[in-house]
Amino acid sequence: MSGLDLYELPNFEAIEASENKLGIQSILFWITVVVAVYLAWTIASPFWYQISNRLSSRVTELRRNSANIILGTTDVFTGNAEIVRPRSEDAVLKGDVVYIAEPTSDNIKENQGLIYFSGSSGIAPSNRALADEFARAGYITVVINYWGKHQKIEDSGPWEIRDPNSEPSERKRTSMIKNALDYLRNNRNCTHIGGVGYSGGALPLMNLIQERPCRIEAAFMAHPGRLKTSAYGTIQIPLSLAQAWDDRSVDVRTRHEQEKELIDMVISTSAEKDAIKSGKLPPRVPWQMNLFSGVEYAFAVRLPSKGRMSRDEIYVKRAAFSQAVMWFETYMPFGEKKLKYDV
């Protein structure tokens, strides 16, 4: 036996215990990694959305500058349609032409956007220019082609006569609105969305703000046409109006009837006012109506075909736009929950 080498038998129990210990440590390690990644993403995601939005806007700025689109651009409140150039680009959203006005990279209102309803002129120079102003104020703005009328950016020729038979169906229009709202929410992370309606565009906007629950939070209309007086008494969200004293689409009697609908909606007793102030009752839906003299129908969006706008026209157009921006800043507050009203 002396010529044989003796070996100790391995301790299999010790090896098995060691392997189990290593397996548990590995599982704990990967659980820790997953939890750390989740927490890091939860903390960083708001900043990532902010960075991605700024990068997107910056890319748009560089693209349109390189394309030389903005050369010759003049003030939308004083210039004429022949020299005002869009600052953003037309796009196709779920098969429909839209104009998406991008905020500048240094002035983005986080998680806020607007859906823009034009009058019967559709996606035209005047509406692109005004949408660009809302974008300059910080709101990403989507102009939908609700009336089926679109003039290409490079087309400087006269407008063709619009064929009523070419207007989109109601089903198509409903789809356009849904697609625009989905785009703002899902693609641009907009948790607060407002609506803008000019002239005939006030009709689809009024239909939208009567919904329960309403898909937007605040609305602005200028020289609204085609609206039933009774519609004003059933709005679900804050509404701001800018109207001309001498408006061919809304005579004095009709305007007074509209005012009465709005007034009746917010009339409260002293006890109700106290309850609202104390927070026991939600506030009534706020509204505002500004009446301007010296201008006519379409004053808030019109661009003169030649020459300059009058002093009254320039002031009123600026005032109506400022009215809209202040309204959205007040009733679509950044970082706050959606406001609730007694409707």
From TrEMBL:
UniProtKB keywords: Membrane, Transmembrane, Transmembrane helix
Pfam families xref list: DLH (PF01738)
A GO MF label: hydrolase activity
Dienelactone hydrolase domain ranges (all copies): 99-331
Sequence intervals crossing the membrane: 27-49
Ranges in coiled-coil conformation: none
Signal peptide: none
UniProt keyword annotation of Membrane present: yes
InterPro entries per UniProt: AB_hydrolase_fold, Dienelactn_hydro
PANTHER family on file: DIENELACTONE HYDROLASE (PTHR17630), PROTEIN AIM2 (PTHR17630:SF44)
Protein known as: Dienelactone hydrolase domain-containing protein
Source organism: Botryotinia convoluta
